[in-house]
Specification:
Blueprint: E1 3-9, H1 11-18, H2 25-31, E2 40-48, E3 51-64, E4 67-76, E5 81-92, E6 97-104, E7 107-114, H3 128-135, E8 161-162, E9 165-166, H4 188-201, H5 206-219, H6 225-238
Antiparallel strand pairs: 1-2, 2-3, 3-4, 4-5, 5-6, 6-7, 8-9
Length: 243
């Protein structure tokens, strides 16, 4: 059985488990007090037949109501970084909106204005599983992060569901003629999954299809995008694709 395992950790615990964490230039430059800020951190392990494939480290800095920064680092079983995502929500007084940016491996991929910033740590998508696992060990059976795994634990939803956003195409058993989903796409990341489904159904090169969806998820900012990307990397690895 494939599974995910998520838990909250301290910074020192994260370093003990995953080695040195990549430093975020965004945190350093935007917070103005990064040395004194303590992030909320959660680690999610992606496990296939008892073997650790990838781990996702999410560090969230709720600096203030007007500034939030999320850093997500994906590491392989050797603790080498395979993806590094940084997101910021910063309130713009003139526009009365939040300027939201996403950087993937240091490259700006999203820059837009949104009506709302990111939420308090106990309500964000990246901590959804860690929060539930803390409350009950049985929560493993319905882990949101497992939506992209083949043969997931019993009770996992066919379509990915992150903090109220239920996807129609993101998920191993989600989409047209699948266990659930289909219909209209719900956001840009759902478009990535829709295109991935079509790519596979056309019989295109599977590794190419997997590479395209990882690139697509990296270019947009949606609830659970990094988590879904890590799950997609598991599928790609099972298909003999290494990025």
């Amino acid at each position: 059985m494939n599974q995910t395992r998520s838990r909250f950790v301290t910074l020192e615990e994260a370093k003990n488990v995953a080695g040195a964490l990549k430093e975020s230039e965004l945190v350093y430059h935007k917070s103005g007090q990064s040395q004194s800020l303590t992030p909320t951190i959660a680690i999610t392990d992606f496990i296939v037949d008892g073997e650790l494939y990838f781990k996702l480290l999410a560090s969230y800095y709720y600096v203030s109501e007007k500034l939030q920064i999320l850093v997500v680092e994906t590491k392989d079983h050797n603790n080498d970084t395979v993806e590094f995502s940084e997101k910021i929500w910063e309130y713009n007084l003139d526009k009365k909106k939040y300027h939201h940016e996403k950087y993937l491996n240091g490259e700006l991929t999203v820059s837009e204005y949104r009506d709302e910033g990111y939420d308090m740590p106990d309500k964000i998508a990246e901590f959804q599983d860690a929060k539930r696992f803390e409350e009950s060990v049985e929560a493993q059976d319905t882990a949101a992060a497992a939506c992209f795994l083949e043969n997931p634990p019993f009770g996992v939803e066919p379509c990915c569901l992150f903090e109220g956003v239920e996807y129609n195409y993101c998920g191993s058993y989600c989409g047209v003629n699948r266990d659930a989903g289909g219909g209209a796409v719900v956001n840009t990341c759902d478009v990535c999954c829709f295109n991935h489904d079509n790519c596979l159904e056309r019989g295109d090169d599977r590794c190419g299809c997997h590479a395209d969806i990882l690139d697509c998820l990296g270019r947009y900012s949606c609830p659970g995008d990094s988590t879904m990307g890590a799950g997609m990397r598991v599928k790609a690895t099972n298909d003999g694709c290494y990025f």
